[in-house]
TrEMBL record:
Cofactor dependency: a divalent metal cation
Originating species: Megalops atlanticus (Tarpon)
Identification of the protein by name: DDE Tnp4 domain-containing protein
InterPro entries, alphabetized: HARBI1-like, HARBI1_dom
Subcellular location: Nucleus
One Pfam family in the UniProt entry: DDE_Tnp_4
């Protein structure tokens, strides 16, 4: 397949994914939806301590071709391959609640979180709830 065809297809698919992102990436819409997420986490953990869990967060590295020039080095992550960081919050069934992407791979997960709209807006999780995370 010619490179130009692949580029056109990837571009078209990307536009379609972006167009529907709000249908598949969203926070629980009602208190009952949030309660179902919390009960789901408590059920998975088999412990009542998780009855206020509103999601689970982590970051992953998406491999990229780094920009040329001196800035390209900041995209090298701790495993030494060039990447951008994708931060995602999922519910107990693995459905996306929130995503944030674009920081260079050398940036620590905690810094990405601190600059994310999710963190800065303080709208989620609601008071009295928490998001599960690792030490990253």
């Amino acid at each position: 397949m010619p490179r130009s065809t692949v580029h056109r297809i990837v571009h078209r698919v990307t536009e379609e994914v972006v167009a529907i992102r709000h249908k598949v990436i969203h926070r629980p819409k009602t208190p009952e939806d949030l309660e179902a997420v919390s009960r789901g986490f408590a059920g998975l953990a088999r412990h009542r301590a998780f009855l206020k869990a509103a999601g689970a967060i982590d970051g992953c590295h998406v491999r990229i071709k780094p920009p040329s020039g001196p800035d390209g080095q900041c995209y090298r992550n701790r495993k030494l391959f060039p990447s951008i960081v994708l931060q995602a919050v999922c519910d107990h069934q693995g459905r996306f609640i929130d995503t944030y992407v674009g920081w260079p791979g050398s940036v620590h997960d905690s810094r990405v979180l601190g600059h994310s709209p999710l963190y800065r807006s303080s709208l989620y999780p609601p008071p009295g709830h928490f998001i599960l995370a690792d030490g990253g």
